[in-house]
Every structure is written in C-alpha cells, then in structure tokens.
From TrEMBL:
It comes from Cyprideis torosa. One of its GO terms (biological process) is phosphorelay signal transduction system. CDD domains: LuxR_C_like, REC_NarL-like. The keyword Transcription regulation applies. This is Uncharacterized protein. The keyword DNA-binding applies.
Amino acid sequence: MNIMQERAAKLNGELQYESDPDEGGTLIQLSFDMPRLEDLLKRRGIEVIEAVGSGEEGIKKVAELQPDIVLLDMRMPQMDGLMVLRQLRKNHPGLKVVMLTTSTNDHDLLEALRAGARGYLLKDIEPDELVLAIREILAGKTVVAPELSSVLARFIQGEDGELQEDKSANPFSALTPREYEILTLLAEGQSNKVIARNLGISDGTVKLHVKAILRKLNVSSRITAAVMAVEHGIRASASNDS
C-alpha cells in the first residue's frame, strides 16, 4: 500500500477536502484533453486559478499568477510538456510542477525528473489520489505513479546507466517527434523563420525546440546538429515518407 492509499484508508475511504490556508495550494492546469479535471480538483479543495490548453499560454499565465504548483500535461500542442517544464523551471526555480501523462516509459520519467518535476502521475489516477499526491508535493515530497516507483529509486541512487547507454547508441532517441521534424529542416539549412512558417508555429517556439535539440544532442550550435543529422542520413523527405 502506497502513502496515498494509506492516507485514504485512515479516512475510511471518505476523502473530504476543505480549503485550508495552512495547506495552501493555488494550481494552474496545463492540459488540452482533460476538461473535467479542473472541476474535480475544485470540488476537492484545490484552488485552480487558471486552466489553459497550450504551453506558450501556460508559461505566460504562470509568470502572471505565480501559482504554488502546476499540473502539466506531458503531451501539449506545439510545445511538448518537457519543453514547457524546462522553461517553467528556468523562469521559476522554486515552482513545483507535476507531470500528468499516459506514458509509463522510463525515459520520459527520468527526463521529467532531471528537468525538475516534483511529480509524475498517470492520467487514469483516481481524483482523490491525485489530490493526495498534490498535497504531498506541496509539502515538499516527490511523488510518482506506483507503477514507476522502481524507476524513481534508480534515479535517486544514480543507477540509470542503461538509459545513458541507449542514448549513446542512438543520439536522436531522446528527441520528440516535433524536435526530430525540426532537425530534418535544420539539416536542409532552413532558418527559424522558414521552419516556423512551414510548420505553422511561432518563431519563438522554433527557437525553444532548437535549444532542446542542441541540449539533447550535446552540441553547441545548430550547424553541428545539422551535420550530425546529415551524417546519420536524416532528411525531411525520409521523415515524410513514413
């Protein structure tokens, strides 16, 4: 029985939440496919001060409203959740961010933890357990889905050598589909403005994706990244064929 289940059992399965100023907790929800989540949280005493559906808008709202915690969807349109997480942590180092996802992939969890996430929960979590997890994270703990607790232990112990080995075998494995797509366009010599126009996204979003690509490939310039892509046979036509 995990800590959330233990706390639920102590309350005989009847979880009732009232707004408690000592526990606090103002939350911004960043997700695009869970519209009912806001109401579920509010009914359980979590003050949802904003709910937005895009990463760019979320970054602006966090700066404006200064919440205690952010509930962030791993899969966001235009900017993926990890990119949003890194930007939020860069702008607000003390901010607590909880990733909400359907992914039980070890790599996704480890990337989120390295980027500073304080929670990594699955979207099928029961509402009462989600609230309990949020309370634990506000209290300073790190909470992950029970299915992934062994991965968290490995991360804490620094025993994630297998992940590093996989990355070295395929330097592009850590890229998201959007980052891979942008890398193929970099390999063609396209500028940020041209890439933005071709993909229908903003110039600023392209810049953030390029920064993420450089970091994941461990290179310092877009030229080096483009050369790597060409050397490995990555090209736009190949990505479009599939």
